[in-house]
Design a protein that fits this description.
This protein is an alpha+beta fold. α3 packs across α7, α4 crosses α7 and α6 packs antiparallel against α7.
C-alpha cells in the first residue's frame, strides 16, 4: 500500500437471515447502533461517518446489498486502514459475510499484538451482529457486562488463541505467535500477559 506494508485480517461468518436484512443491519443507523455503535455523518458514498467512541472515515464504495468499503481511522495516529464488507446470499434466509480489514500498522504494534488486535475486536462485533439478527440485541451496559463475564472472557480468550493459530498457519515464528497471542488475550480480557 502507499503508506507501507499492510496487514490484513479476513473474517467469514454465515448468518441466518437474508442479504437484504443483513445489509440493513450493517447500514441502517438505527440498527447499527443497537448491535455495534451509534453512527453519525453523511452516510453515502463520498460521505464521512463517525462511530461513537471508535473509528471514523469515508464511505469509499456502497453497492447495496453486496459490498461496503470504508476508510477506517482509529486512534491518535491512525495511518491507512480500510474495511470491506461483502455479502453473498447462501439461500433464501442465509447470507455469508466477509469482512476484510487492511491496515498499515507500526512495526511495534504488529510485533506486540499480531493479527489478533484487529481480529478479536471484529470477532466481538460479528458476534454482536449474530445476536442482533437472531433478535437478542444487548445494550451497551449489557454488552460490557457480558465481556467481563466468564462466558465473555472465554469467548475473548478463544478468539485470541484462534487468531494466534491463524498467525502460526501464516508462517509466523512460534515465539512471536506465543507472545502476540498472550498480549492480545491480556488486552481484551484484562488478564495479565504471561
Amino acid at each position: 500500500m502507499p503508506d507501507g506494508t499492510a496487514d490484513t485480517v479476513l473474517l467469514r461468518r454465515t448468518y441466518e437471515t437474508g442479504a437484504a436484512d443483513l445489509w440493513d443491519a450493517l447500514t441502517s443507523p438505527g440498527r447499527l447502533g443497537r448491535w455495534f455503535l451509534p453512527v453519525s455523518g453523511e452516510l453515502a458514498p463520498g460521505g464521512h461517518y463517525r462511530l461513537e467512541g471508535n473509528a471514523a472515515g469515508e464511505i469509499l464504495e456502497c453497492v447495496a446489498p453486496e459490498r461496503l468499503r470504508l476508510s477506517w481511522l482509529f486512534g491518535p495516529d491512525p495511518g491507512l486502514s480500510e474495511v470491506t464488507v461483502r455479502l453473498t446470499p447462501a439461500g433464501p434466509a442465509r447470507t455469508v459475510l466477509e469482512l476484510d480489514h487492511v491496515a498499515v500498522a507500526s512495526p511495534e504494534f504488529r510485533e506486540r499484538y499480531g493479527p489478533g488486535a484487529a481480529g478479536v475486536g471484529w470477532d466481538m462485533a460479528l458476534h454482536a451482529l449474530a445476536r442482533h439478527v437472531a433478535g437478542a440485541t444487548l445494550g451497551r451496559a449489557e454488552a460490557t457486562a457480558w465481556e467481563a463475564s466468564a462466558e465473555g472472557r472465554a469467548f475473548l480468550t478463544h478468539a485470541g488463541e484462534a487468531w494466534g493459530a491463524a498467525y502460526a498457519a501464516a508462517g509466523a515464528d512460534p515465539r512471536t505467535v506465543e507472545s502476540t497471542t498472550a498480549a492480545t488475550v491480556a488486552f481484551y480480557t484484562g488478564a495479565p500477559a504471561q
